[in-house]
Amino acid sequence: MPQPYSLLFCHAAQVLTLAGGPSDKPLTGADLSEWRIIEHGYVACLGDTIAAVGPMGELDAGRIGPETRIVDVSGRVLMPGLVECHTHLVFGGNRADEFQRKLQGESYLDILASGGGILSTVRKTRAATDEELLQSALHHLEGFRRYGITTLEAKSGYGLDAETELRLVHVAQEAGRRQPVRVVPTFLGAHVPGPEYKGRPAEYLDMLAADVLPQLDPAAVPFVDIFCEEGAFSVADSRRYLQRARELGFGLKIHAEQLHELGGCQMAAGLGAVSVDHCDYLTPAGAAEVAAAGQGRTVAVLLPLVPLYLRQEKYAPGRQFIEAGLPVALSTDFNPGSCPSKNLWLALQVACLKMGLTPREALAAVTLNAAWAIGQQASCGSLEPGKRADLLVLHVPDYRELPYWLGENPVAQVVIGGELL
Ligand code: NIG
Ligand code: FE
C-alpha cells in the first residue's frame, strides 16, 4: 500500500511544472519556453519531497488519508519556489549616502575609485560583529522568503582580508541553519583587491589562493567567484585564480562584462564555469562563444535591476543570448551598492521589458535555470516527483499576470521542504 500524501494542493488553475525539457543541461532556445503547464492540476507531497504532480482527473484518491492536509488552491497558480542564484547577502551598513551621489551623476566606477562603493561597505563590514552580520542576513532572508525565494546563493566579498572573508562565509552558513530558506555559499574574496593590496591585485589573489581557499571545503562552499572588470581583476589574473580554485575542487563563477567587454565570460566558460554573471556588455557573437565553450552548461545569469539602479542604458541582450543557444537565468544581485532589492519578481518583469525575454522564458530563468546556475538542479527548480517540496501558491490565476503587475509580490503561500510556512 503506498503511503498517503502528507500535503496535497488541489484544483490549481495552473501548475507551472517547469518539467519536460532535457534533464542533463539547463534550458535554452525553444526549451526555455516549452515546459509543461497543467490546467486544473494538483501537487502532492510526501514529507519533504514531491510525490506526484498532474491534472486533477489523474489524482489517486487512494493516497488521500486522514493524515493528508488538503489545501484547495482554486483560482491560483502553483509553481516551484524561486531560486535566487546571485546575492551578496552578508554585509554591514548601507550606502544610501552614495545613492545621492549617483543621482547627481557620479558613476559606479568613479565612486569605487574614490574609495567608496564596495570599499565603503568593506569598512562597515569589517567593523560589524558576527552577530550583527548574522541578524542583518536573517532579516534579508526573511524578506526573500516573503517574495517566494526558497533557495538562495550567498556570496562573501565585503571582508577582503582572510579573516573577514572566512567570517562572512560562516555567517552565511549559520544564517542557512537558522531559518528555512536554503543557503548556498559562494566565496567571492576576489571581489576587488583588498585595501591593503591596492595596486597589487595579483598578490592579493595569490594570498587568497594560498591562505583562504585551502581552508574552505568545496562540499560546503561549492563555488569560487571573481569580479573581472576595470578597477577589479584582469582577465589574465582571473584565469589564473579560477584555475587554482578549480584544482582545489571548487565550481567556478565570474562577474564579467558588467561595464566593459573584456572577454571574461568566454574565459570562464572555457574553464567550465557553472555561470557567467551580469553580461550586459556581452555581444550576441560573444554569447555564441560562451555557449560553445561552456558546452551548453554554463548559464548566463542576467541581473536586470543593476543597470536600472546604476542608471545605465545597456542591458544584456537576453533575447539574442537565447537565440545564440546560451542558457539564461535571472537574479536580483542583491547587494548594498548596485541593487539593494530583493524583489526577484521585479527582476523578472524588467527582464521582459528590457532584455526581451518572454514570460515563460523569464519564469524558467528564476527557477530551473537558476537552480542549474548554483548546481542545485537535482533538488529544486521544477515540480517533479523526487524533488524537494519547495513550492509557491500565487494570488493570480494565470502565469501571464506575473510580468504584468509591475513591482507586486504575487506570493500567497510558501512551502519549503514540505512545510507550509
Ligand atoms: O554584483 N559588480 C560587482 N559587485 C556587485 C556590486 C557590489 C557593490 O557595489 O557593493 C555586483 O553588482
Ligand atoms: Fe554580484
UniProtKB/TrEMBL annotation:
Cofactor binding comment, as recorded: Binds 1 zinc or iron ion per subunit.
HAMAP family in alphabetical order: HutI
Reactions that this protein is recorded to catalyse: 4-imidazolone-5-propanoate + H2O = N-formimidoyl-L-glutamate
Keywords from the UniProt entry: Cytoplasm, Histidine metabolism, Hydrolase, Iron, Metal-binding, Zinc
Organism: Hymenobacter edaphi
Protein name: Imidazolonepropionase
Involved pathway(s): Amino-acid degradation; L-histidine degradation into L-glutamate; N-formimidoyl-L-glutamate from L-histidine: step 3/3
Organism ancestry: Bacteria, Pseudomonadati, Bacteroidota, Cytophagia, Cytophagales
One GO MF term attached to the UniProt entry: iron ion binding
